[in-house]
Amino acid sequence: MGVAAPLLSPLIARLQAEANGGPKPMRFVFLLEGNGLPAGQIQPVGIVRNEIPNMRNPGVSKQSGEETLVDLKLSAPGHSLPEPLAPLARHLKRLTILQGLSGRVCGGGHSNDFGALGAYSNSSGAKDITIDAALARANPGIFRHVALGIASNGKPNIIYCCSASGPNQKIPHYQDPALAYNMLFGRILGGNTKAEVGAQTMLLDFMTDDIHRLERQLPDEESQKLQRFADAFASISKRHARLSEIDAQLIPARRDEVYLSELETKRLEAHVEIAATALITGLTNTVTLASGAGSPNFEVTFKGLGINVDKHNIGHRSVAGAEQMELKTRQFHMELLAKLVDQLQAVPEGNGSMMDNTLLVYLSDSAENHHSTCYEWPMLLLGNLGGRLKTGDRYVNVPKYGTKGHGTVARFYTTLLHAAGAPVDHFGMKDPILEGAIEQAGPLAELLT
Q: How far apart are CA 228 and CA 208, in angstroms?
């Protein structure tokens, strides 16, 4: 295990800290819904928002026109959540509605693909690491990162849509919930003995050693390729060694009427259940859920909600009642989020619950519209990472694009890394148009404790 020590030392240090009463692990969940999130759909009732014509599509949509920071309590008299967010009302103390951030570097269009979580151009593919993978690296679990999602149909079983661990290193999202369940929990539920797990770990260690011996005999380029294999085997080895620690009683039985269903609603429900289980059992600290996110996947049809029009046509408003269909779909996603908070809130941890050390981020890969411009990127935040973030019972609208105090999605992601104990000067790409006009380095002071 000496070879794998550099890779595993952050995980081992964290486990030792927890065992000695140290800080609990931080957990992150990202839910990306395709086809845009119009700011008006999450605007609280009773809070008037100053808007201006969108710079790119002035006759089609509007964007935030606030000159200064707006920071209000959601629970203040006269304020209430709009209908699509109604399921989150019981978690108001944990909820922050974040408006006004921009992500122009991503490009816009039907989807910003990997750029949505990477804060870089959507035309560059998986150009670099995305924020979910960066946070997973800073807060490793047995499985560093669990990625799940649904596309336009049940095939293929694996999709690549929005997450990357580095340049050209796309992270697979399990689309088939039954496959994801078996891959994550099957070995634990199968009753494998510690001896079997130990034997597999020893084999992986031998393979890692062999790779490193060969690595020293090869040119640099080939050596780097082998290093990736060695790191992967080392990670799998440690994962296997810890699987015997998981309490199988914490894993709910697979409900085939949900996990094998062809309905998008059922499959997404199954994925959220898997996410909760993976977090509660300690299998992972980071989960990404994709609901029709990514360029190939925006034609999801939520037949389980009685909707027979795909989200692409709904986004174009090409059918009667399209807006109501969109609001109904949005509310369904809020119900899933509320249920996930319920589950994490029910698990004791320290003097509170697991939810106290968790952050859920909801956004669209298409920013503010079906045909997005990324002048604005509305988001919802649930949780405050044990007080590391100034979130909960807040409505925050940053100053408009180009105005002093304006914030970008890249700076928001920088803020998350600071909160996670992995500070960077800047995550993703800076907006060249804003360079020199507004601050783009460091975290957002209005969000970081």
A: 10
Q: Which of 58, 55, 62, 71 is nearest to 40 (CA)?
A: 62
- In angstroms, the Cα distances linking 335 to 44, 88, 328, 339, 342 are 17, 7, 11, 6, 10
Q: Please provide residue 169's backbone torsions phi and psi, each rounded to the nearest 5 degrees.
A: -115, 75
Looking up tokens 């929005």 gives 162
Cα–Cα distance between 186 and 180 in angstroms, integer? Answer: 9
What structural domains and CATH numbers belong to the chain? 27-176+260-419 (3.40.720)
* Phi, psi dihedral angles at 419 (to 5 degrees): -65, -30
Question: Can you tell me the distance from the alpha carbon of 188 to that of 7, in angstroms, rounded to the nearest whole number?
Answer: 24
Tens-digit pLDDT profile for residues 179-221: 999 988 887 777 543 444 444 454 445 555 655 666 566 566 5
Nearest to 109 by CA among 350, 255, 344, 298: 298
> Mind listing the pLDDT tens digit for each residue in 64-76?
999 999 999 999 9
Please calculate the CA angle 195-136-434 and round it to the nearest 5 degrees.
170
Amino acid of residue 71: D
- H/E run at residue 395: strand 394-397
Asked if 161 and 278 count as a contact pair (C-beta separation under 8 A), the reply is: no
